[in-house]
Each structure stands twice: as C-alpha cells, then as structure tokens.
C-alpha cells in the first residue's frame, strides 16, 4: 500500500534537515533534498520494520503463554487421571466407597 506523508524540512549550515509531519520520530538529514528524501524513506522503513518486529514478538510471547498454560493444565489433568486408579484402589482396599 502506497502512503503519502508531508516532509517538513529546513536548510541549515549546508544540510537539509527534515521530519515526517504525520509520523512522530522519523527525522533525517541530507546534503541535498534528494538525499534527505532517501534518508527519510529509510528512516520510515526502519521504524515500521521495528514496530512490526515488536508486534510479532509480543504476539509470539502471548501465544507461547497461552500454549504454556494449556500444557500445564494438560499435565495436571494427566497427573490427576494417573493418580485416580491408586485412589480407587485405596478406597476399595479400605472398604470405603
């Protein structure tokens, strides 16, 4: 998907310094306006890639927590079921039902 942003820039001491108005945190500079535009694109792509990776890690952690909780619950159920015959044996042996 193609997105358009506003590049605000100024020329300071021989450098073009700019930022994307709609995307906080995306700043860059260049010796020419063309170089600034290229650097701003790179900065934007790096920032969006970092955000994508953060979301992927967070989703992975959440799904691991979910599967770990499921595994723990399953292990408890197996332990309870495996101890059931012993419990039944003790009840029958002691004459209580």
Q: How helical, in percent, are the residues?
A: 55-70%
Q: What's the overall average pLDDT, rounded? A: 77
Biggest beta-sheet profile = 3 strands, antiparallel
What proportion strand? 15-25%
> What is the name of the CATH topology?
Double Stranded RNA Binding Domain
The counted number of beta strands is 3
Q: Unreliable runs, pLDDT <50, ≥5 residues? A: 80-94
**What class would the helix/strand composition place it in?**
alpha+beta
> Can you tell me the CATH class?
Alpha Beta
Tally the helices.
1
The outline comes out as elongated
Succession of helices and strands: EEEH
The radius of gyration computed from the alpha-carbon positions, rounded to a whole number of angstroms, is 30 Å
Question: From the 3D coordinates, which CATH architecture would you assign?
Answer: 2-Layer Sandwich
